[in-house]
Structure formats: structure tokens, C-alpha cells
Amino acid sequence: MDNSSDLLVIGSGIIGLATAYRAHQQGQTVRVIDSNDRPVGASIQNFGHACFTGQDDLIQPVAERARSGWLEAAREVGFWAAESGTHVPAVTELELQVLREFAEHRGPEQVRLLSRDEVAGRIGHPGLPSIGGAHLPLDLRVNPREAAPALARWLSARGVDFVWDTRVTAVSGGTAQTSRGDYTARQVVACPGDQLGQLFPEVAARHGVRVCTLVMSLIERPAAVPADLALLTGTSLARYDGFGAMPSIGALRRELAAREPELVGCIANLMVTGIPDGLLIGDSHAYAHSPEPFIDEDVARLLLDRASAILGIGTPVVRQRWLGRYADSASTNLIIERPDDRTTVAVVTSGIGMTLSFGIADLALSGESVPGY
Ligand SMILES: Cc1cc2nc3c(=O)[nH]c(=O)nc-3n(C[C@H](O)[C@H](O)[C@H](O)COP(=O)(O)OP(=O)(O)OC[C@H]3O[C@@H](n4cnc5c(N)ncnc54)[C@H](O)[C@@H]3O)c2cc1C
């Protein structure tokens, strides 16, 4: 390949890589440019939780395409993707009520209500302080530290050209200007994540794009806790749009504010997933255009204490902490725009980019949009 290709993808996060994967399958010549020398952005910092079920009704067709994309890529590339679903223990009657409403709304293929003993057994904590719960069987788990790097290696071995350590400074009409010269393509798909404003400042400004930072920890996994665990809690019910459409969600939000003011105060979505290295525990949410890099130890401890109580872990052994970051907008979860007829911008502006990635890739390449978004 010279400096020209059928498709030029900006960004080697999961959105860019999924787009490159789909275009490669279509037989296009593909080049991916990234300012880093490997994927190190949001796509490796997260829970590896593909939470299709919890997303809102409008986005479900994209979530379904994303799910097939993940399973297909995992099979072909050879990275881990567990079809173990998500478990949601309910610790109060209102949490259980939201789950009942959600089960009624989505049906048994997507939501299965569990007894207290069933949910306790599934998450490996017989003493779990819950009154019941639910299993969301369609959700998937991947290891975020494995999936994007494996996909990049696999694509590279099959002729996709990766131009690392190279910053794109401007894009229009099929030409990308970079710190190492110009590249041209029939189509350019820009997936710059939280750096959208550097490349397309008007798009970012129109959607009020900012950076969300999240306190995360990796702890050792006790043998009783399943390695493919994905656990959501009441704060997750209050956060994800699918649960958020249920009639009892307002009452649950008020209950959480009274019962868990510290979690609500740091805008927590208390959740846990397992990866081979241990358990990922998070997260809090803070918003800024230029966030400071510091991890608040009180927030980290709060999340660890609450997660440990649910899992029956006495003293968590912390292996790593980090401040994750992703692109956020208060007005939309998803930006897919076409500034000109050869350029597409694709950025997920909430914490659901792993979930939707392969579905967004299909939209970016086909030119389709999501009704209502
Ligand atoms: C702590 C945390 C927890 C999360 N949990 C979940 C979860 O459970 N489920 C879920 O679905 N999602 C989750 N997310 C969100 C998800 O990780 C993101 O939405 C997704 O990874 C975004 O992918 P991306 O490809 O857009 O961004 P990134 O992975 O950040 O990739 C963007 C890439 O673009 C490159 N780039 C940017 N600008 C330029 C430029 N000008 N020139 C060259 N290269 C450029 C960057 O170097 C980077 O490699 C979480 C995120 C975090 C941080």
C-alpha cells in the first residue's frame, strides 16, 4: 500500500479496530493511524463488559449487531469472550421491583429473575445480603487488556497497515494530514475517542463533549468468585438507560440517595468483572474538559469496600489502580456525523463503547444512522 487506501481509520481503540475489522472482511484495503504506539486508551481501561441488555430500547438493534460482531471477532481472532451474562443482585425491594419491571418489559430471553440463593450461588458468596436478583444472559465478557491488542495484531498480520506514533492533525475530503505527512483514502472514519475536540472542534462543541474520569482497581480474585463474573448493582440500575425507563426507577434513585449518599455523591456505577488477572472494581464518574490525573483514595476505598461486601471478600488485595477516561456528552450517547461525503466521525459519548463497538462500526461503514439518536 502506498499513501492511499480504500479506508483510513483514525484511532486504534475498539471503535476504530472494529471498523477496520469489518472493512477488511469486505475486502477493502485499510490503514489505521494512531498517535500512540499501541492501543492504550479507554478500550483497555474498562471492565470488558458488553452490557447489551441494559441499554435503551432504541439502541437494541445496534447492540444486537455489536453482539454478533464481538462473537465473530473473538472466534476468528482467538480472544476470550464469555457468554456468561450479567448478574444483578437486588438488596432492597425497590431494586427487585425495577428488575421485575425490566423482566416483564424485555421477556425471558433477555432477563431471568433469580431467587436469593440462586444469585448468591452464581456470584460465589453464600452470605450475600440480597433478596433476589436477575441474570441478563445475552451480555458478554471480554478481557479489555487482551481484545483490542489482539485485534490489532490479527489485522496487521492480514495486511491492514498500522501507522503508529503518528498524530492526525486535520481531515477532509479523503485526506488526513498527520505529523508524518498526508494519507489519502476513498473514505476516512475518525474514531478519536476523548480527543474528538482536537480534530473536530465544532462537532465536539456542538455536543458539549468533555472527558469522564473513573476510579478503577484490580484486586486478586478469591477462588469462590467465578472468573467470568459480571456483576451490576443498584447504582447500575440507576445509570443505564434500559433500566432507567422502568416505572420504579425514580423511587429507586431517591432510595439510593438516602441509603448510599457516598456512592451517589461520586456518581458511582458500582460493578465488578473478572479477568484472568483478577477482579476489576469500579467505578465513579467525574466530568471535566481537562481532568486532573489524581485518584481520590476515599473514592477508591469506598468502591472497594462496597464491592467486597457484596462478594464476601474480607480484605481486598489491590494489584493496580488507575483513572480511566472516556469521551462523554450530557446530550447524547453517540456521535456519528459526516462532515463531508468522504469523512465519518464515530465517537461513543458515554461508558458503553465496548458494548456498541462492532454495531457502531457497521453504521460508520454503511452510512446508516440510528432512528432517535
Ligand atoms: C474505566 C472505564 C470503564 C468502562 N466500562 C465500560 C463497560 O463496562 N462497557 C462498555 O461498553 N464501555 C465501557 N467503557 C467505555 C469504553 O471503554 C469506551 O466507550 C470505548 O473504549 C471507546 O473506544 P474508542 O475506540 O472510541 O476510544 P479509545 O480506546 O480511547 O481509542 C481512541 C484512539 O484514538 C487515538 N487518537 C485520538 N486522536 C487521534 C489523532 N488526532 N491522531 C491519531 N490518533 C488519535 C488515541 O490515541 C486512541 O488510541 C469504560 C471506559 C472506562 C475508561
TrEMBL record:
This is TIGR03364 family FAD-dependent oxidoreductase. Its cofactor is FAD. It comes from Citricoccus parietis. Belongs to the DadA oxidoreductase family. NCBIfam families: HpnW_proposed (TIGR03364). It comes from the Bacteria. Pfam families: DAO (PF01266). The lineage of its organism: Bacteria, Bacillati, Actinomycetota, Actinomycetes, Micrococcales. Keywords: Flavoprotein, Oxidoreductase.
